[in-house]
Amino acid sequence: MLPSAISAPNGAVIVHSNDEILHVTDAAISLFNTDSRESLRGTSIRDYVATSDYEALADQFNRIEAGSTSALGLTITITDSTGYSREVVTLSSPVKWDGQDHIQTLCIDVDSKLAASELVTNTMETSPIGISIADAQRDDLPLIYVNDGFVEITGYSREEVLGRNCRFLQGDNTRPEPVAKIRSAIKNEEAVTVELRNYRKDGSMFWNRLSIQPVTSDEGDVTHFLGYQEDISAQKTYEQEQALFEMQADAVEKSLFITDAVGRIEYVNTQFEQTTGYSADEVLGQTPRILKSGAQDEAFYQELWETITAGEVWEATITNERKSGERYTVEQKIVPVVDDTGEITHFVSIEDDVTEQAFTEEVLAVMSRVLRHNVRNSVNAIQGYAELLEEKMEDPNDRAVLQVIQSQAKNLETISQRSQDIRELFRRRHEHHTLKVGTIVGFVEQQRVRHPEAQIDLSMEVADDREIQNGSLLQIAIDEALENAVVHSDHERPHVAVTVTEAATADRLCIEIADDGPGIPDQEWDVIFDGQETQLAHGTGIGLWMMYWTITALGGTIERSDNEPRGCVITYHIPLGTSNEEEV
Q1: DSSP secondary structure, 50-112, as one string
Q2: Which domain holds residue 410?
Q3: Are residues 313 and 285 in the same domain?
Q4: Can you tell me whether residue 188 is helix, strand or coil?
Q5: Which residue, 41, 42, 50, 435, is most buried by CB atoms nearer than 10 A?
Q6: What pLDDT does residue 376 have?
Q7: Structure confidence at residue 279 as a pLDDT band (50, 70, 90)
Q8: What sequence ranges are listed for the domain Histidine kinase (predicted)?
Q9: How far is residue 420's CA from residue 412's CA, in Å, rounded to a whole number?
Q10: pTM score
Q11: What is the C-alpha separation between 293 and 555, in angstroms, rounded?
């Protein structure tokens, strides 16, 4: 059964989805010059609409399907089955068809002579948007027809507007630019669409999306101007609120991004771009997995997703990865956003970069514990052996005892110097400049001079001009690794191999330092990656911490593996900058 909304006589009406025609009236069969409804069913309106017009028409269909408007009008060119093109005015609105939500589009042929009574016949009277007709052949273009939608939008009765020019809707705050555009289009007998401030009878302002279309006679003379008035105040308010939100969001010194209900990113603020290194264009439509560093396992993300999809707020401290590959730590809060029905529509994520804070706190805490432990042990040893020396001053072993005392004193001196190095390192860590990869050769050569008893080989497989941000920190990590490999070796001539390569899948530098010594005990290594010292787990030195801290400060990672047939391999992975060749 034909719905009452489209049963008006003489109406060329099409019922359709966005892509498929479902039903047409007899007038539509005539308009498209086909033999039957069956020849139109299953085809797409796109097949008959001029390419230049379809994007605007499809946009109207999308807005109607989304429920953001109840009716929209447009002037388009269609081509019938014989190839004949004509201009029509379309009026589209939602309709129920076979129990489903679809769209009905009324097509009015404006190439034929068009009288006001004919327009009324074509169901314009019941349209929820404002429709008006002005007489183009009379002075000052008086209105000769307005529909109920026009009366409802403006608050004026028909008696108050017929015979007047439509400019009475303008007010003091109506901008001159859209008015000038309207006048120019009318003068040139052209179609025009503008958005402008208009005023109702009670003085209240509304935003009017006004579309004007000239209607011609058989002789080609413009006889009328057909106008569509759509109240878009709610849309304008939304746009203004969105602009205000974006301005405020950009002023926040925290990363903020918004996703839809399935996790696709729809908005990021300026701080997000600065923190992550990604532009908005690079992440819109992506998911937050683009920031995934691998520091959290899948169970972590599963718990996150289950929490927020249940409508609960999620809070955690996590490690993300910037576009450059550098890792950073954030305190994350994700808040679900629900609509009036309680359905989740979006998620808002706020992330506070606490990399500096977390890193500094870790350094200070570990330094305090390690130094207390090591200094205390060294002092105890000195005191104990000093007592022995005092009691056995004439003993032949005095020299050996004295050597032990001297050794422990030297340990104290070394620890003190290391603590000073660390303080200086992190006090000035932001002052370090970029470093050419080729400088690594000099670092290794210095260690060869310092340890002539060792064989230290170097293999460079990366262009010398590649750059490392804050690269001067790298020397500390290399020095510590080589020092550890040589000093703790149980060979008369320790052998250490340094290999520098570039990762195949990303701009990251890989530095492997392989030795043939006894390796690093698991207990020492585990303390590093637990991030804290405890009563039961102490690192006996701070060399490993120096390696870990400097590589972390470079935004990189450190790994340990076994060497073959014996020994240990330490691997540093750090982000590379842009080479000079790429910059050109």
Answers
A1: -HHHHHHHHHHHHHHHTTS-S-EEEEEEEE-TTS-EEEEEEEEEEEEETTEEEEEEEEEESSS
A2: 354-424
A3: yes
A4: coil
A5: 435
A6: 64
A7: very high
A8: 370-578
A9: 12
A10: 0.42
A11: 11
